[in-house]
Amino acid sequence: MEVDQVATAMNQMASTVQEVAQNTEDASQAARQASDRAAHGSSVVQHATREISQLAGEVGQLGEAMQRLIQDSDKIGGVIDVIKAVAEQTNLLA
Question: For residue 3, is pLDDT > 90?
């Protein structure tokens, strides 16, 4: 009877060890997947950071171009004022 109890206990222990081994393998696989996903997420964040940095540079260049456009518009406005003044003087002489 004692041998049967020991055999039963050994079988239960072997079953438990197999279950622990399977759980360990599952946990290992889940950890690998999490690591892969984290690496992918890191890559996506790095790419987004580069793109945002590039966009910020382009927005800065756009701002500079707009400033030049405003300055050029002011100069054109000045030339138009001179042309109007000359036209008025010409009309007065006519």
Answer: no
Of 18, 15, 37, which is closest to residue 26 (Cα–Cα)?
Answer: 18
Please give the torsion angle defined by the CA atoms of residues 58, 64, 70 and 76, in that order, rounded to the nearest 10 degrees: -110
Six token digits for residue 67: 């400033």
Task: Tell me, rounded to whole angstroms, the distance of Cα 58 from its chain centroid.
Answer: 16
Task: Cite the DSSP H helix spans in the chain.
Answer: 2-93
Cα 11 from Cα 67, distance rounded (Å): 83
- Its pTM stands at 0.58
DSSP state of 1: -
Q: Could you read off the pLDDT of 36-69 as tens digits, one per residue?
A: 999 999 999 999 999 999 999 999 999 999 999 9
